[in-house]
Design a protein that fits this description.
Blueprint (H helix, E strand, L loop, with lengths): L2 E3 L5 E9 L2 E8 L5 E5 L6 E4 L5 E5 L4 E6 L6 E6 L4 E6 L5 E6 L8 E6 L5 E6 L10 E6 L6 E5 L15
Antiparallel strand pairs: 1-2, 2-3, 3-4, 5-6, 6-7, 7-8, 9-10, 10-11, 11-12, 13-14
């Protein structure tokens, strides 16, 4: 996700940069009066902020995850690696789990894993009822911080039929 509201509702956290994977994290005042960099020294493809708005977890270009204080302090690598086609979607309200979703890939599209922030233990949390032959990728997934609500959208491609016609001139 490229932007999300800070928990205080007064700031919009926004990823911006010259190209995907070379972005910084910025805060934009909801009134539109301010734009300030929070972190510029690292490259990432997506992020989620914690419920307190003090830290973010960002996905690096190589699929590794990093814990980043929103303010001063060093970033710290986490023992969690994204699979190909997988994205970081939410950080639980209690701060213990990250939700990762398989957005692309024939075998596991729609798989949502819950991963422990400390230790990196991964387990299947939900499997969206999608047929990978008809749904080649997800457009978006939103999970509430407490995990009680889930919304998703996807591209639909009907299975193709092949017809053989004989005797045309």
């Amino acid at each position: 996700m490229g932007a999300q509201w800070h928990p205080d509702g007064r700031l919009l956290l926004h990823a911006a940069g010259p190209e995907p994977g070379r972005q910084g994290l910025y805060a934009v005042d909801a009134s539109g009066s301010g734009f300030s960099p929070l972190r510029k020294e690292f490259s990432f493809s997506s992020f989620v902020a914690n419920a307190q708005g003090t830290s973010a977890v960002a996905a690096k270009a190589d699929g590794g995850l990093v814990l980043v204080p929103l303010g001063e302090g060093p970033a710290r690598d986490l023992p969690i690696q994204l699979a190909s086609g997988e994205r970081l979607v939410q950080w639980s309200g209690d701060g213990r789990f990250l939700y990762l979703v398989q957005f692309e890939g024939v075998a596991h599209i729609g798989r949502i894993d819950r991963v422990e922030l400390v230790g990196g233990k991964r387990s299947l949390w939900r499997q969206l009822p999608l047929d990978s032959a008809e749904v080649p990728w997800l457009d978006g997934v939103a999970i509430s911080r407490d995990g009680s609500r889930l919304a998703y959208s996807f591209e639909h491609q009907p299975v193709a039929d092949l017809y053989f016609v004989d005797g045309l001139n």
